[in-house]
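User: I'm new to structure prediction. If I give you an amino acid sequence, what do you actually give back? Let's try with this one:
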Amino acid sequence: MSEKIATRVTSISNRSEPLLGSGGGGVASLGEVWRWGSDNMLPYALSLLARRSVAHRRIINDKADYIAGKGVVCDERNLLLSSFVQSVNGEGDTLRSIVARLAMDEAMFGNAFLEVVTNADREFLSLYHIDASKCRIAGDSQSVVLHHNWAAFNKAEAQSIALYPRFEEMEDGTMRTVVHYKDYEPMFSHYGVAPYVAGLDAAAIVYKTDRWNISRIDNSFQLSGVMLLDGVVDSEAEADRMVRLAEEKFGGKPGQVLFVLRDGEAADSNSSRFVPIDTSSDGDWHSLHAQAESDLVVAHSWFRSLSGLDYASGFSSERILHEYEVALNTVILPKQAQLLEPIRRIVGDVLGIDASSLDIVNRPPSRTKPSYMRIWEARKLDGLDYDENSAEQQRYLAELGSRYGE
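Assistant: Good question. You get back a string of structure tokens that encode the predicted 3D arrangement of the chain. For your 406 residues, that looks like this:
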């Protein structure tokens, strides 16, 4: 790669995070941004849910991995485009790594943000992923406002960048814009909606049933119930102290056993006793967990075998390949097109090159035929016409051999 190409493609600065300088319109106050959720904290809630719900997080991770694919390819004869794919900013991030982060935000939030950096003369191009939880749309819908902690908003710490296709000059002399990816939802104009929105309760159930099992383990699987304590006390404070002492010594995890102090003289019996709560509904909890997992997969528009939820019942490569083929055509390819389309356009506009050859490599998670099988053997196995001596096949095999060093 020539020095000229490297200079044009990569950023002129050496930093891992995008430089977020204040734009010409200034930084908006908290009241001048469109709220993301009723309290403007929806991304924080979705992030927390994704970190707590096992099946929910697995589906998000798998969708993002499949959408990011195995790499980004292009026409290798286009040296400028090829070098850009290998390094899209001053930190050497590949285009595939940027796409992977965008895909993760899209799967988790239904929104993703990409910063584009160049200069007035279009001498270079850099792309940076911006954490979607830090972004809010300005009230005029012309820029993105960024803040490191929206729960403690400080206008002096906030920064703004123009929304694509409008570029804005920053204090460092660069021209910047932000591409906002969002999943369309009727009645929502400024933000996209997470694709699993109908499965939020299911994700919460999966998390809560897991927490219930953890509480049982913490409590050594002892029965839940009410412990009636006999005793005579002089004050409410003394009664509260006795109950708290009993909870600390005998209660296990708080909430598993409810301690009640009663007046020993007024009680029917002069002895303390434990009243167990029936826990014969364990099977119902298991069914509730399983049903919530199934609902969650449906809400994500995803497939159980692609998220490892059916491995306990046996590994079926045929089913995995079938569901992968459906997912590829209904979820993966449309999402890849959504992510790459603005990037192709920006590369063409800024660098002045044809970026139509940019594409993502997709490979199935498993193979039904071994790699050493010849083409005519595979066709024979599938019941198709074959000719092991076909000249066309021999040429194809020769090309494969030279390509992979066989």
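You can read the tokens as a compact description of the fold. Here is one thing that stands out. Confidence is low (pLDDT under 50) at residues 1-25.
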